[in-house]
Amino acid sequence: MTATSFDPRTGTQISTAPATSESEVRDLLKRASASAERVAQATPAQRRDWLYSIADAMEFQADELVAIADRETGLGRARLDGEVLRTAAQIRFYGDVAAEGSYLSVTRDEGAAGTDRLVRVNRPLGPVAVFGASNFPFVFGVLGHDTSAALAAGCPVLVKAHTAHIALSHRLAELAQTALSEAGAPEGSFGMVVGRAAGVQLVKAPEVTAVAFTGSQSGGLALWRISNERDRVIPVYAEMGTVNPVVVTEAGATDMQQLAKDFVGSFTLGSGQYCTKPGLMLAPFGSDAAARVASALETLDPRPLMLTEGIAGSVKQGLVELRHAGARTVVELGDVNVGWSAPAAVLQADISSLSPGSRLLEECFGPVVLVCEYSSQDELLAALTNLQPSLAASLIAATEGADPQAPALLQRLSEQVGRVVVNGWPTGASCSWGQQHGGPWPSTSNPGVTSIGAAALNRFVRPVAFQDVPDEWLPPEAQQTNPYNVPRRVNGILTPAPN
Amino acid sequence: MTATSFDPRTGTQISTAPATSESEVRDLLKRASASAERVAQATPAQRRDWLYSIADAMEFQADELVAIADRETGLGRARLDGEVLRTAAQIRFYGDVAAEGSYLSVTRDEGAAGTDRLVRVNRPLGPVAVFGASNFPFVFGVLGHDTSAALAAGCPVLVKAHTAHIALSHRLAELAQTALSEAGAPEGSFGMVVGRAAGVQLVKAPEVTAVAFTGSQSGGLALWRISNERDRVIPVYAEMGTVNPVVVTEAGATDMQQLAKDFVGSFTLGSGQYCTKPGLMLAPFGSDAAARVASALETLDPRPLMLTEGIAGSVKQGLVELRHAGARTVVELGDVNVGWSAPAAVLQADISSLSPGSRLLEECFGPVVLVCEYSSQDELLAALTNLQPSLAASLIAATEGADPQAPALLQRLSEQVGRVVVNGWPTGASCSWGQQHGGPWPSTSNPGVTSIGAAALNRFVRPVAFQDVPDEWLPPEAQQTNPYNVPRRVNGILTPAPN
After folding, report:
1. Closest CA to B31 of B144, B157, B137
2. Is A1 exposed, middle or buried (0-12, 13-18, 19+ CB in 10 A)?
3. How far is B119 from chain A (nearest CA, A)?
């Protein structure tokens, strides 16, 4: 078995790598497991240094990495130049979050009269299996959010390389191994496997304590089901994505032409291959939204290239299914029939056809959107209830003055998604303390977590309480003297880190 | 269908209640769902007042409640008097945790140049289904930890009453409904169902957003599987329990006689019906641990009464299975054959028989323990690796001076359990900021959460990020003016609540 990547622009083969054998995976698991205690015991500042070392190497080798990535993804130099720098920044961010130490949630109940002396602290889970996505070769690749957050939290990482960019994956893995070694991280703290069977072996392995996945619903659910059959079930954090809605109020629809242009810019970004791509616009009756979006798409006239032959095929198949489910084509810009090209399309449907179970409510990954018009706020709110929960939603409302529709819509959307954007687009999720990239099932497998932002570390730790344990036996981060200078709660009082 | 409770002292029937019908459950679900927005929008201080109102009523009616509980559980007035007061205190604690507001994790990235303005805040999930336990009619009953934590977090609660104390459950539900109504909580914020079918209906209902369960492994796994078959899978927080080990070091074994007496006190508490009951003692070779524990048990000479006929039968069946798996009986104090009586027993086995898959590693809920002796630290550490992860563990070590065995044992135990106690017993888990009552699979279904202590609220919220949302449209708790005076992180800096 081998993994082969292709040039999406031509469909010609780029790189081939052998799949990792069962015994090689066992060896990697053994090494990850053997390193787990030392990775966990490194200070948060040491782990920050490891991550900075990776980020430095990534920036130093950016040109070479981008060249490889561009050949395997067709995403273009400009986008990839930005993505690699963004990835280096996010890797450092996770290191900073580790060093800041809030993620440890150190809580000391020091034992008032008659109470237990309890010290609670988050401990790393152990080796984590990471499944990267095709659509962000850097940001969600071998050294993407999940890998950085797991290392920051003190867990060794084993990544399953994405076949779509197998040459880049190998280059990133080499880079990480060298950078980690130079920064003093234990051997075994990072490894990579190739091939589907190797990935499944990771999810089944007793050594693995959690799985992080970004990709399709079918892929995420498959891993989740495999974990649920384990002797010891482990958390599977699958970020799968659904349809992200854009809701336009009457007051928000005053300049529908500009809105249509911006919407097209958002849903064609990266050929629509964003988990935050807006896939459904709900606009007021009479706004002529579908025609204007179609017209803006014709003006842009994109020639979308997809990351893989499979995705290109899914776009074409998705269009067939959406039409079968009652959508009408407003515009479809032809497939150029070169490499992994696919059409971009604007479809329209009656809002009444957005009923539970309809294909219209399911994602079509790629530059395809559905536009529906609503006649009343009640009709709009009812339609929103039928949508699958999603990662993100946009509300386009009045930019000045009151908008009577907005508060109820914001409330409803916030019940169904992980992030609501007002007068902006869901594509692009910055990596910061306040980010939330997640959402209720089936947009993710776990509504309480995020795969972007500071809280991403929380997926890879679990709290342990130490009762009446002598202070010198506690993990250093939880000791009374606070050697790592982390924020903590002492006898119920939250105390930021001293300066 | 009806639910019937019995007097464990005699086996005679106490109370019978009709099972809640399918249409009655649908009605309760509709009411819970209709109340969800108002429960969520109540201020944390208002929810604290609701919980205080319940606690006040519980204390006021303590005598009556204890009398009912004693007839249905046989746990005795002294224990139940304490338990009802402890429950009132824990209910108030969850109210205080809500009002303190850290659980909201308010995070404001106010948008430095070129960055997104993101405000992240935890929002209540919606209606929660709670399955109480038999063994703590108050602490984990209809108004136990899960109910209080969910209400504190802003979620309506529907409880499935435990048949073992059906009369008490009805009394507690009436009490809660009156107290909530008097305190101004919305109608529908609390409800109760009776019967297994009604419980399953809750777990399958689209209106329910999370399930909290405390009880047996078979019961917890059954609910977890039902949820996994839903169209929209929801979190099932099942606290199931396994075997909690007690590890005695050489230096900790100096007064084995006293230790044996204390161990017996711990594992016979509540007839051994604690999820934190220590079920396995690992003591040094030559400490004569098994004989001394047996002797202490004979001195105490308990006559255990179990909560249900089913549990009494399981204890007897468990003893058969443990012997079949290679355990030898050191002492077994006879079943008195009255009501739901069962034997108390000390068994012994070779440490080499603690191999993965052995029945010896599985829980026997009740006053039954297994004692094994180890010859070396290596043998001990290897045996620990084979144990099922558990809620708690005790390490009995030197009380003064160094103990060369202790650090490695503490490290190993902390990797397998939710709470480690040094020189104390796992039974009894105080409800405080630093508590952690959880553990890796299969002791619970989710290693990252706790069902006791301040962090118990976290199970019933999920983060939502608001991007570029006008401040007045945000949930009040996240607004710039901080109207509820909660701790928060602003532009990366953690800030406790102003005084």
Report:
1. B157
2. exposed
3. 6
Backbone angles phi, psi at A427, to 5 degrees: -65, 135
CA B318 to chain centre: 22
CB-nearest partner of A441 from B105, B234, B436: B234
Task: Quickly list DSSP for B10-48.
Answer: T--EEEEEEPPPHHHHHHHHHHHHHHHHHHHHS-HHHHH
Helix (H) or strand (E) holding A494, with range, is strand A493-495
Catalytic residue (one of B72, B83, B239, B373)? B239
Place of tokens 């490889």: A68
Q: What share of chain B is helix, strand, coil (3-state, %, to 5)?
A: 45, 20, 35
Task: Note the pLDDT of residue A114.
Answer: 66
Asked whether residue A214 carries a pLDDT value surpassing 70, the answer given is yes
Q: Which residues of A touch B453 (CB under 8 A)?
A: 120
The H or E element that residue B486 is part of is none
Find, in chain A, the residue whose alpha carbon is nearest to that of B93. A492
Q: Residue A160 has which token pair?
A: 């399953």
CA distance A72 to B464: 35
For residue A336, what pLDDT band results from cuts at 50, 70 and 90? Answer: confident
Instruction: Please compute Rg for chain A using Cα positions.
Output: 24
Asked whether A387 and A361 are in contact (CB, 8 A), the reply is yes
Burial of B34 (0-12, 13-18, 19+ CB in 10 A): middle
| Angstrom distance (rounded) from CA B358 to CA B353 | 8
**CB B135 within 8 Å of CB B274:** yes
Residue B229 designated active-site: no
What are phi and psi for residue A262, nearest 5 degrees?
-65, -40
Cβ–Cβ < 8 Å for A421, A394: yes
Please provide the size of chain B in residues: 499
pLDDT digits (tens, 9 = 90+) for B429-467: 999 999 999 999 999 999 999 999 999 999 999 999 999
Q: Which residues of B touch A415 (CB under 8 A)?
A: 123, 126
Q: Supply B419's token pair.
A: 């709470």
Q: Say if residues B364 and B332 touch (Cβ distance below 8 Å).
A: no
- Backbone phi and psi for residue B145, each to the nearest 5 degrees, phi listed first: -50, -50
Separation between Cα atoms, residue B499 and residue B496, nearest integer Å: 9
Q: Answer yes or no: B363 catalytic.
A: no
Strands of A236-239's sheet in order across: A190-193, A157-160, A128-131, A210-214, A236-239
Rounded distance between C-alpha atoms, residue B33 and residue B156, angstroms: 8
- The ipTM (two decimal places) reads 0.97
Mapped onto helix, strand or coil, the DSSP state of residue A20 is coil
Partners of B438 on chain A (C-beta within 8 Å) are 462-463
Nearest to A370 by CA among A417, A323, A410, A313: A323
CA of A120 vs chain B CAs: smallest distance (Å): 5
pLDDT digits (tens, 9 = 90+) for A248-275: 999 999 999 999 999 999 999 999 999 9
The reply to whether the predicted model has a pTM over 0.90 is: yes
- Angle in degrees, CA A164, A22, A204, rounded to 5: 85
Cβ B115–A422 below 8 Å, yes or no? no
Q: Shortest CB distance from A119 goes to which of B434, B469, B494?
A: B434
CA B5 to chain centroid: 22
- Whether residue B366 contacts residue B272, with contact meaning beta carbons closer than 8 Å, is answered with yes
* Segment A18-33 mean pLDDT: 98
Q: Quickly count: other Cβ atoms within 10 Å of residue B206's Cβ.
A: 12
Of A120, A432, A438, the CB nearest to B436: A120
Asked if residues B212 and B129 have their Cβ atoms less than 8 Å apart, the reply is: yes
